[in-house]
Amino acid sequence: MEVVPALDPASPRVRFGVELRRLREGAQLPQAAVASRLGCTQTQVSRLEKAVRSPSKSDAERLDRLFGAEGGVSFVRLYERITAQPGGPVWFRSWAEEIEPTARVLRSWDPLLIPGLLQTEAYARHLFSLEPRATAEVVQNQVEARMRRQRILDRDSPPLVLVLVDAGVPHRKVGDAKVMREQLDCLLKIVERPAVSIQVVDPDCLPGLAGAFMIAELPDGNPVTVHADSPAQGHVTADCELVTLIQERYEAIRLWAYPERASLKMIEKARREWT
Fold first, then answer.
1. At which of 66, 84, 102 does a domain end?
2. What InterPro entries is this protein classified in (predicted)?
3. Residue 69, number of CB atoms within 10 A of its CB
């Protein structure tokens, strides 16, 4: 059964799905017929209607051609409202709004920072505040979006989250000592949950130097999807060849990881050093 995250009924993404279903049923079209027009699967149309899949611009344009301007609905305008929402770049929303909330397993590697899914508000705020051209409003929107992402950890059936971080991360100063103590306390607390595992990776692990990434295993036969970081724009893909390369790199990094018990002792030691 597909897990559907809690959604804001006033959001343009939810409105997009509601209007799609209303017009489709009014035209007596099955989901498969709409899928053929969009060049996707019936499951993807269902996910659009449930607002657990973010529409693309081409989805919106094709739906406007299919249904015309019936009822004053413009899917292109709804799409523009979706992409105009604050809280992060457009390329990341498909991951944060569609992939993470439905994932069964999330595997994460970060050689530089605490991964966003486990960051405290103060840690995240300091990172965002140092971005080029950061304004107070932009920073606040980004912090709120990051905190919303973390709600998936509070669900009754959260995803299994397997985190690898470089040994230097607990010692890398972000903010002041108070921010770091709070962040490391958060890690030690969150790892008490049975669905979260954190392992520290030996700093001599050269395969990890290529950069941060996440791997999502999805339900219902949906393909494994990865998100790879870059300074300008992350890359989200389900391309089989690229996914396999990332999965192999994750396993290569994991070979350098300390057992979780030893990893937590290392985090505890780093926490005591932030005085």
1. 84
2. Cro/C1-type_HTH, DUF5753, Lambda_DNA-bd_dom_sf
3. 8
